[in-house]
Amino acid sequence: MLDDFFTRAVVAGVGVALVAAPLGCFVVWRRLAYFGDTLSHAALLGVALAFLLDLNITLAVFLVCAGVAVALVLLQRRATLSSDSLLGLLAHSSLALGLVVLAFMTWIRMDLMGFLFGDILAVSKADIGIIYLGGIAVLIVLALIWNPLFAATVNRELADAEGMKPARTNLIFMLLMATVIAISMKIVGVLLITALLIIPAATARRFATGPEQMAVVAAVVGVAAVVSGLFGSLTWDTPSGPSIVVAALVFFLVSLSPLAGLLMRTSRPVQGEKS
Q1: How many beta carbons lie within 10 A of that of residue 189, not counting itself?
Q2: How many separate domains does the chain show?
Q3: CATH of the domain at 163
Q4: Over the stretch 162-175, which tens digit does the pLDDT of each residue have?
Q5: 55-61 — which CB contacts under 8 Å span 24+ positions?
Q6: How far apart are CA 13 and CA 184, in angstroms?
Q7: What pLDDT does residue 108 have?
Q8: Is 71 buried (19+), middle (13-18) or exposed (0-12) by CB count in 10 A?
Q9: Has residue 54 been placed in a domain?
Q10: Residue ranges making up the domain that contains 168
Protein backbone atom coordinates (compact mmCIF):
# COMPACT_ATOMS: atom_id res chain seq x y z
CA MET A 1 0.00 0.00 0.00
CA LEU A 2 2.75 2.48 0.99
CA ASP A 3 4.78 1.68 -2.14
CA ASP A 4 2.76 4.21 -4.11
CA PHE A 5 4.12 7.77 -3.75
CA PHE A 6 0.66 9.36 -3.84
CA THR A 7 -0.66 7.06 -1.11
CA ARG A 8 2.35 7.90 1.05
CA ALA A 9 1.69 11.59 0.48
CA VAL A 10 -1.95 11.26 1.56
CA VAL A 11 -1.07 9.24 4.67
CA ALA A 12 1.65 11.72 5.66
CA GLY A 13 -0.55 14.75 5.02
CA VAL A 14 -3.43 13.32 7.03
CA GLY A 15 -1.07 12.67 9.94
CA VAL A 16 0.17 16.26 9.93
CA ALA A 17 -3.37 17.65 9.66
CA LEU A 18 -4.56 15.62 12.66
CA VAL A 19 -1.69 16.89 14.81
CA ALA A 20 -1.73 20.50 13.61
CA ALA A 21 -5.47 21.00 14.17
CA PRO A 22 -5.66 21.14 17.99
CA LEU A 23 -2.46 23.18 18.23
CA GLY A 24 -3.82 25.51 15.57
CA CYS A 25 -6.88 26.13 17.74
CA PHE A 26 -4.67 27.47 20.52
CA VAL A 27 -2.75 29.56 17.97
CA VAL A 28 -6.05 31.16 16.92
CA TRP A 29 -7.36 31.58 20.47
CA ARG A 30 -4.11 33.14 21.68
CA ARG A 31 -3.50 35.19 18.52
CA LEU A 32 -0.09 33.58 18.06
CA ALA A 33 0.01 33.49 14.27
CA TYR A 34 3.18 35.58 14.26
CA PHE A 35 4.80 33.16 16.72
CA GLY A 36 4.05 30.30 14.33
CA ASP A 37 5.63 32.32 11.53
CA THR A 38 8.70 32.93 13.66
CA LEU A 39 9.24 29.22 14.30
CA SER A 40 8.64 28.33 10.67
CA HIS A 41 11.21 30.92 9.56
CA ALA A 42 13.67 29.51 12.10
CA ALA A 43 13.17 26.07 10.55
CA LEU A 44 15.31 27.08 7.57
CA LEU A 45 18.22 27.77 9.93
CA GLY A 46 17.70 24.26 11.28
CA VAL A 47 17.92 22.87 7.74
CA ALA A 48 21.16 24.77 7.13
CA LEU A 49 22.72 23.53 10.38
CA ALA A 50 21.64 19.98 9.58
CA PHE A 51 23.63 20.06 6.33
CA LEU A 52 26.57 21.85 7.95
CA LEU A 53 26.87 19.49 10.94
CA ASP A 54 25.57 16.35 9.20
CA LEU A 55 22.54 16.01 11.50
CA ASN A 56 19.07 14.62 10.96
CA ILE A 57 17.03 17.45 9.43
CA THR A 58 13.93 16.89 11.58
CA LEU A 59 16.02 16.84 14.76
CA ALA A 60 17.98 19.96 13.76
CA VAL A 61 14.79 21.88 12.91
CA PHE A 62 13.24 20.91 16.25
CA LEU A 63 16.35 21.98 18.19
CA VAL A 64 16.53 25.36 16.44
CA CYS A 65 12.79 26.03 16.81
CA ALA A 66 12.90 25.00 20.47
CA GLY A 67 15.90 27.29 20.98
CA VAL A 68 14.01 30.20 19.40
CA ALA A 69 10.99 29.50 21.62
CA VAL A 70 13.14 29.49 24.77
CA ALA A 71 14.95 32.63 23.57
CA LEU A 72 11.60 34.37 23.15
CA VAL A 73 10.59 33.50 26.72
CA LEU A 74 13.90 34.80 28.10
CA LEU A 75 13.80 37.99 26.02
CA GLN A 76 10.22 38.70 27.10
CA ARG A 77 11.38 38.68 30.71
CA ARG A 78 14.48 40.85 30.19
CA ALA A 79 13.97 43.04 27.15
CA THR A 80 11.92 46.23 26.98
CA LEU A 81 10.67 45.47 23.47
CA SER A 82 7.10 44.32 22.81
CA SER A 83 6.39 40.68 21.98
CA ASP A 84 5.63 41.40 18.32
CA SER A 85 8.93 43.27 17.95
CA LEU A 86 10.82 40.36 19.51
CA LEU A 87 9.03 37.91 17.22
CA GLY A 88 9.93 39.99 14.18
CA LEU A 89 13.54 40.18 15.30
CA LEU A 90 13.82 36.43 15.85
CA ALA A 91 11.90 35.48 12.69
CA HIS A 92 13.87 37.55 10.21
CA SER A 93 17.22 37.06 11.94
CA SER A 94 16.91 33.27 11.94
CA LEU A 95 15.70 33.21 8.32
CA ALA A 96 18.57 35.45 7.22
CA LEU A 97 21.10 33.35 9.16
CA GLY A 98 19.80 30.21 7.52
CA LEU A 99 20.12 31.68 4.03
CA VAL A 100 23.63 32.99 4.76
CA VAL A 101 24.79 29.61 6.10
CA LEU A 102 23.37 27.87 3.03
CA ALA A 103 25.11 30.37 0.74
CA PHE A 104 28.48 29.58 2.33
CA MET A 105 28.04 25.84 1.76
CA THR A 106 28.86 25.96 -1.93
CA TRP A 107 29.77 22.27 -1.96
CA ILE A 108 26.15 21.28 -1.26
CA ARG A 109 23.44 21.35 -3.90
CA MET A 110 19.96 21.32 -2.43
CA ASP A 111 16.39 21.99 -3.47
CA LEU A 112 15.69 25.19 -1.53
CA MET A 113 12.20 25.48 -3.02
CA GLY A 114 11.36 22.05 -1.63
CA PHE A 115 12.20 23.21 1.89
CA LEU A 116 10.39 26.52 1.47
CA PHE A 117 7.17 25.15 -0.03
CA GLY A 118 7.32 21.44 0.80
CA ASP A 119 7.67 18.27 -1.22
CA ILE A 120 5.02 15.95 0.14
CA LEU A 121 5.17 13.68 -2.91
CA ALA A 122 8.73 12.74 -1.92
CA VAL A 123 7.94 11.53 1.62
CA SER A 124 9.31 8.13 2.54
CA LYS A 125 8.08 5.42 4.91
CA ALA A 126 10.60 6.70 7.45
CA ASP A 127 9.10 10.21 7.16
CA ILE A 128 5.64 8.77 7.77
CA GLY A 129 6.92 6.96 10.84
CA ILE A 130 8.40 10.18 12.22
CA ILE A 131 5.18 12.08 11.54
CA TYR A 132 2.92 9.57 13.30
CA LEU A 133 5.23 8.76 16.22
CA GLY A 134 5.99 12.43 16.80
CA GLY A 135 2.35 13.34 16.26
CA ILE A 136 1.09 10.81 18.80
CA ALA A 137 3.62 12.10 21.34
CA VAL A 138 2.46 15.69 20.71
CA LEU A 139 -1.22 14.79 21.10
CA ILE A 140 -0.57 12.86 24.33
CA VAL A 141 1.31 15.79 25.88
CA LEU A 142 -1.32 18.25 24.63
CA ALA A 143 -4.08 16.15 26.21
CA LEU A 144 -2.20 16.19 29.53
CA ILE A 145 -1.83 19.98 29.54
CA TRP A 146 -5.14 20.80 27.81
CA ASN A 147 -7.00 22.09 30.89
CA PRO A 148 -4.22 24.31 32.31
CA LEU A 149 -3.32 25.53 28.82
CA PHE A 150 -6.93 26.45 28.06
CA ALA A 151 -7.30 28.10 31.48
CA ALA A 152 -4.17 30.17 30.82
CA THR A 153 -5.56 31.09 27.41
CA VAL A 154 -8.81 32.38 28.92
CA ASN A 155 -7.29 34.12 31.96
CA ARG A 156 -3.59 33.81 32.73
CA GLU A 157 -3.83 35.56 36.11
CA LEU A 158 -6.63 33.28 37.29
CA ALA A 159 -4.75 30.19 36.12
CA ASP A 160 -1.69 31.39 38.02
CA ALA A 161 -3.79 31.97 41.14
CA GLU A 162 -5.20 28.44 40.83
CA GLY A 163 -1.66 27.03 40.85
CA MET A 164 -1.75 25.84 37.21
CA LYS A 165 1.72 27.27 36.45
CA PRO A 166 0.85 28.95 33.13
CA ALA A 167 4.49 29.88 32.41
CA ARG A 168 5.54 26.22 32.40
CA THR A 169 2.47 25.24 30.40
CA ASN A 170 3.18 27.94 27.81
CA LEU A 171 6.76 26.74 27.41
CA ILE A 172 5.54 23.16 26.85
CA PHE A 173 3.07 24.46 24.26
CA MET A 174 5.88 26.29 22.44
CA LEU A 175 7.96 23.09 22.36
CA LEU A 176 4.97 21.21 20.95
CA MET A 177 4.72 23.85 18.22
CA ALA A 178 8.41 23.34 17.46
CA THR A 179 7.82 19.59 17.19
CA VAL A 180 4.90 19.97 14.78
CA ILE A 181 6.86 22.36 12.57
CA ALA A 182 9.80 19.95 12.50
CA ILE A 183 7.72 16.93 11.48
CA SER A 184 5.52 18.81 9.00
CA MET A 185 8.22 20.81 7.21
CA LYS A 186 8.47 18.29 4.36
CA ILE A 187 4.70 18.42 3.79
CA VAL A 188 4.04 22.11 3.11
CA GLY A 189 7.44 23.73 3.64
CA VAL A 190 8.69 26.27 6.16
CA LEU A 191 6.79 29.18 4.59
CA LEU A 192 3.38 27.49 4.56
CA ILE A 193 3.33 25.60 7.86
CA THR A 194 1.59 28.42 9.72
CA ALA A 195 -1.21 28.40 7.16
CA LEU A 196 -1.88 24.71 7.85
CA LEU A 197 -2.05 25.53 11.56
CA ILE A 198 -4.29 28.57 11.29
CA ILE A 199 -6.71 28.14 8.38
CA PRO A 200 -8.42 24.87 9.46
CA ALA A 201 -8.75 26.22 13.02
CA ALA A 202 -10.17 29.51 11.74
CA THR A 203 -12.65 27.57 9.61
CA ALA A 204 -13.67 25.35 12.52
CA ARG A 205 -14.33 28.37 14.72
CA ARG A 206 -17.36 29.17 12.60
CA PHE A 207 -18.99 25.81 13.32
CA ALA A 208 -17.83 24.74 16.78
CA THR A 209 -19.65 25.47 20.04
CA GLY A 210 -16.85 24.41 22.38
CA PRO A 211 -13.04 24.10 22.43
CA GLU A 212 -12.91 20.32 22.08
CA GLN A 213 -15.45 20.38 19.25
CA MET A 214 -13.44 23.08 17.50
CA ALA A 215 -10.32 20.89 17.65
CA VAL A 216 -12.22 17.97 16.09
CA VAL A 217 -13.77 20.10 13.35
CA ALA A 218 -10.37 21.66 12.60
CA ALA A 219 -8.90 18.17 12.21
CA VAL A 220 -11.67 17.22 9.77
CA VAL A 221 -11.12 20.41 7.76
CA GLY A 222 -7.36 19.87 7.75
CA VAL A 223 -7.69 16.30 6.50
CA ALA A 224 -10.16 17.40 3.82
CA ALA A 225 -7.77 20.16 2.72
CA VAL A 226 -4.86 17.71 2.46
CA VAL A 227 -6.81 15.15 0.44
CA SER A 228 -8.50 17.65 -1.89
CA GLY A 229 -5.27 19.66 -2.30
CA LEU A 230 -3.30 16.56 -3.27
CA PHE A 231 -5.93 15.42 -5.76
CA GLY A 232 -6.07 18.95 -7.17
CA SER A 233 -2.27 18.96 -7.47
CA LEU A 234 -2.40 15.62 -9.30
CA THR A 235 -5.15 16.80 -11.61
CA TRP A 236 -3.83 20.25 -12.55
CA ASP A 237 -0.10 19.60 -12.06
CA THR A 238 0.30 22.31 -9.39
CA PRO A 239 2.76 22.36 -6.45
CA SER A 240 1.46 20.02 -3.75
CA GLY A 241 2.18 22.11 -0.63
CA PRO A 242 0.62 25.35 -1.91
CA SER A 243 -2.31 23.33 -3.33
CA ILE A 244 -3.09 22.01 0.17
CA VAL A 245 -3.06 25.55 1.57
CA VAL A 246 -5.28 26.80 -1.28
CA ALA A 247 -7.74 23.98 -0.58
CA ALA A 248 -7.81 24.98 3.09
CA LEU A 249 -8.45 28.57 2.02
CA VAL A 250 -11.37 27.44 -0.14
CA PHE A 251 -12.93 25.66 2.85
CA PHE A 252 -12.51 28.83 4.92
CA LEU A 253 -14.17 30.97 2.25
CA VAL A 254 -17.04 28.47 2.02
CA SER A 255 -17.47 28.72 5.81
CA LEU A 256 -18.09 32.47 5.37
CA SER A 257 -20.85 31.93 2.81
CA PRO A 258 -24.55 32.48 3.65
CA LEU A 259 -25.22 28.75 3.13
CA ALA A 260 -22.71 27.87 5.86
CA GLY A 261 -24.40 30.36 8.19
CA LEU A 262 -27.75 28.74 7.48
CA LEU A 263 -26.34 25.29 8.22
CA MET A 264 -24.95 26.53 11.53
CA ARG A 265 -28.30 27.94 12.60
CA THR A 266 -30.18 24.77 11.68
CA SER A 267 -27.65 22.41 13.26
CA ARG A 268 -27.61 24.14 16.64
CA PRO A 269 -30.51 23.42 18.99
CA VAL A 270 -33.05 26.16 19.59
CA GLN A 271 -32.85 27.71 23.07
CA GLY A 272 -34.86 25.61 25.47
CA GLU A 273 -34.78 22.58 23.16
CA LYS A 274 -32.92 19.44 24.22
CA SER A 275 -29.82 18.78 22.13
Answers
A1: 26
A2: 1
A3: 1.10.3470.10
A4: 888 898 999 999 99
A5: 57/185, 58/130, 58/134, 58/182, 58/183, 58/185, 59/182, 61/181, 61/182, 61/185
A6: 8
A7: 76
A8: middle
A9: yes
A10: 5-191
- 272: exposed, middle or buried (Cβ count in 10 Å: 0-12, 13-18, 19+): exposed
> 106-129 pLDDT, tens per residue?
877 777 777 888 888 889 899 999
Domain membership flag for residue 180: yes
CA-based max dimension of the chain: 70
Q: How far apart are the first and last CA of the chain?
A: 42
Confirm if 63 and 43 have CB atoms less than 8 A apart.
no
Residue 148 included in any domain: yes
Q: At 228, which amino acid appears?
A: S
Alpha carbon distance 149, 173 (integer Å): 8
Task: Determine contact, residues 161/44, Cβ cutoff 8 Å.
Answer: no
- The answer to whether 245 and 229 are in contact (CB under 8 A) is yes
In a domain, 255, yes or no: no
